[in-house]
């Protein structure tokens, strides 16, 4: 027998202590995160006055947008407080037991290099080490380089600071703004006048199509560079830094880029100016070119400036178009503060709009805005296609044919290269569309086959089994419910349910991601295995939140009528399920648990222990050891310390939170004032549950959106 074994045999208590100490040392909830020094902080607010905080780590050049309540925890991340203590501190300040939120916040901070301990992806390093070079890998790298590669400039921020200090500031003065407005508005008019004079050919320079093509290409790159320079100077005007800038090859086409991320730390007005300055700079320069061309006699210089005015005006007018996902669109998104505006508007136009119009339901203000933007986007897409075809027929095709027939081999090769570069992006987009259509067609065909029905039932059954609420049903009944469920593919931006509208369907997410919005503010993120709308199976109560698809997804749904019909002859099972749904709904309504998703709530419900306490019965006693946390579900309790009544707590309020951290004596006595229903939570269960949240990969994405539900601040009592 080894000495270690003899020691364990002789002193089992000591061996247990050693293993418990090891388990505690390796537990993620015992981690003591430390925030890096030198963070820059900017307190801001939305147009509606909702506050948020942007933090910047200059050393790693990373940014995060945090809820003020999350930001308030950063001073506690000093290397002395554990994740478990952070959860309790958040509860004491805001009255919400936000286990997944705090665990995810720590993961988010680490992934963006805001903690002293850097993120480590051991699997990525291992894959890179084991990856062998191959011809396929080399081809893939070449394709990626063709699609997007960049060459960064050195010391770009220093150069831009000098340029802004010497001459750039002039463009942000009132006289410059007035002159720019005149030129920006007159430019398109002057260009059209010159176009009607027909002094110059856009596609030929010196009677050469090849030179004309080269000139337009050079002017296009120059226009993009000046466009990005406008963004960069606006960032310097805001007093912020430009971290990166340079040239980029995008789908084989040369372009320029500027990293304006640092302007996030500026007020909203300066952020909007940074977005506006790029296309406005190019538009003004196009106006200057058009004015000079109009004043000059016909000459080679006039031909170059005419081509320049065309390139500058077209490029930047398109950038201002809010119906395209360019600068104008993002300006509009920032102004109206509607993230995913295009996807949500098109999703509303595809389905809910026509259903509402058919039923003659009045549209809300937000729905009218979505309808207007979505219909305008669809109309613009159709108009752009018609204009492109007409432009090809009237101008481009005759020019290309003439150049091909009379330009020689060099011109022919140049035209082939240009055609390849121009056709690559739409070809890739078309390929993606064909693939999606093929997938949809295969699903529709398979749906009509018997094997597809069996597969669908199996998928629905697997989704139901993953939901604790349904997994307790007898297998036969569960199969009946699965057969009654219907699959639905959901496009990004689609609102599956809308707050305030009646609901009669229950949804289970097969794949994809959704965001839960309450009063327009994101409060949670749902992913595969999550579910929503379960209350609709009990009654036709209005939806408590809007559920929005943030990526392509698939759900299974069950409506109330089918649910009741399926269980019509099994009243015992139906009663048990409805009781479980009602219990779950009542717990979900408590302010303490409102921030949890369906799966998170299920994990918590599995650990909560219902208790019934008679009037006058003491639940905890001052000076006694404590290892439980309590939530009042119904009834009322009073908190007494040294004979003095400190507080009276009712439904939804909690006490005993210090017991979640340490097994310390109770600081007060809590007694039931009337027959009271409680939910008890053991310290050990709290530890295990939080450790589970710390290990969940999905929490990083869950923290990418603000959750701004307001809760009253509660002081700790009866710890």
Walk me through what this model shows.
Strands 7-14-9-12 form a four-stranded antiparallel β-sheet. The chain starts with a helix and ends in a 17-residue tail after the last helix. It has 719 residues and is of the alpha+beta class. Helices cover 52% and strands 16% of the residues. It folds into four domains: 3-111, no CATH class; 142-337, no CATH class; 455-589, Jelly Rolls, CATH 2.60.120.10; 604-702, Jelly Rolls, CATH 2.60.120. The chain has 25 helices and 22 strands. The radius of gyration is 32 Å and the shape is globular.
Secondary structure class reads alpha+beta
Any low-confidence stretches, pLDDT <50, length ≥5? 1-16, 695-719
- What count of domains describes the coordinates? 4
Q: Strand order, main sheet: write it out.
A: 7-14-9-12
Tell me, rounded to a whole number, the average pLDDT. 77
Helix content: 40-55%
Tell me the number of helical segments per DSSP (H or I, 4 or more residues long).
Answer: 25
Rg, Å, rounded? 32 Å
The separation of the N and C termini measures 47 Å
The total beta strand count reads 22
Spell out the key features of this protein.
719 residues; alpha+beta; Jelly Rolls; 4 domains; four-stranded antiparallel β-sheet; 25 helices; 52% helix
Q: What is the topological layout?
A:
Layout: H1 3-10, H2 12-26, E1 40-45, E2 51-57, E3 62-66, H3 68-71, H4 83-94, H5 99-111, H6 122-130, H7 135-147, E4 148-152, H8 156-166, H9 174-197, H10 209-237, E5 245-250, E6 253-258, H11 268-295, H12 300-320, H13 327-336, H14 341-350, H15 352-358, H16 365-406, H17 408-447, H18 450-465, H19 468-471, H20 475-484, E7 486-490, E8 495-497, E9 505-511, E10 514-518, E11 521-526, E12 531-532, E13 546-549, E14 553-559, H21 560-566, H22 571-588, H23 598-605, E15 609-613, E16 618-620, E17 628-634, E18 637-641, E19 644-649, E20 654-655, E21 669-672, E22 676-682, H24 683-694, H25 699-702
Antiparallel strand pairs: 1-2, 2-3, 4-5, 5-6, 7-14, 8-13, 9-12, 9-14, 10-11, 10-13, 15-22, 16-21, 17-20, 17-22, 18-19, 18-21
Helix pairs in contact: 1-2, 4-5, 5-24, 8-10, 9-11, 9-12, 10-11, 10-12, 11-12, 11-13, 14-16, 16-17, 18-20
